[in-house]
Amino acid sequence: MKNINNRTKKYLFVASGVTVIALLIAIIGSQFEKEPVADAVIPQNKNEVTDVMIDKSEIEENEDDIIVEPVIIPEQIQTDTGAIDTGTEQKIQGDVPEKPTYTEEQLTDPTQKPNGEKVEPSREEIEEVIQEAPITETNSEPQGGDKKDGQIYLPGFGWVKDEGGGGEGTVAEDMYENGNKIGDMN
Fold first, then answer.
1. 144 vs 157: CA distance, rounded Å
2. Which of 43, 107, 128, 136 has its CA 20 to 30 A from that of 160?
3. pLDDT tens digit sequence for 138-179
């Protein structure tokens, strides 16, 4: 084996590995095969009539041995749905009752439905009432922007020295439009 170079050794090693794997797959696969049943006779599909013989000597017929339980049929409550299932004319649905008539007063009363049910006010009506109510603040806490003694109140920060407000801005002459030069990252 001294004369075999590394490339040939690699090919032999890979080929032997593939052979071993193929043998293992074949052995494992053969374990899952069903063995043929040698004793079973496969019936031929022929149109032959075979006689079936019943030995009546072993069968004892005795009428006393046969017990039949009485069948109990529960009473069914029939409900009248208005459908007629007898005769030549059949109705699927009974007659529809007439529409009730309401007075003008019942139709325009906002506190109840025409059939007399009480109506709760809708969410929109409640919101309208809430919006119409005068808002009075009994809170002595200052609101954002209130000024006092040279300070301004900012919610979340409290009283801050008022320096006149506003930010400062400058124009950069070396910045170009349309995405060419935006700034210097140095």
1. 10
2. 136
3. 567 888 888 888 888 888 888 888 887 666 777 776 666 675
Domain ranges of the chain: 1-31
Q: How far apart are CA 146 and CA 141, in angstroms?
A: 10
Distance, in Å, from the CA atom of 74 to the CA atom of 68, rounded to the nearest integer, reads 18
Among candidate residues 177, 147, 149, the one with its CA nearest the CA of residue 165: 147
Task: Tell whether the model's pLDDT for residue 119 goes beyond 60.
Answer: yes
- Closest of 128, 133, 159, 132 to residue 145, by C-alpha: 159
Percent helix, strand and coil across the chain, each rounded to 5? 25, 10, 70
pLDDT at 137: 59
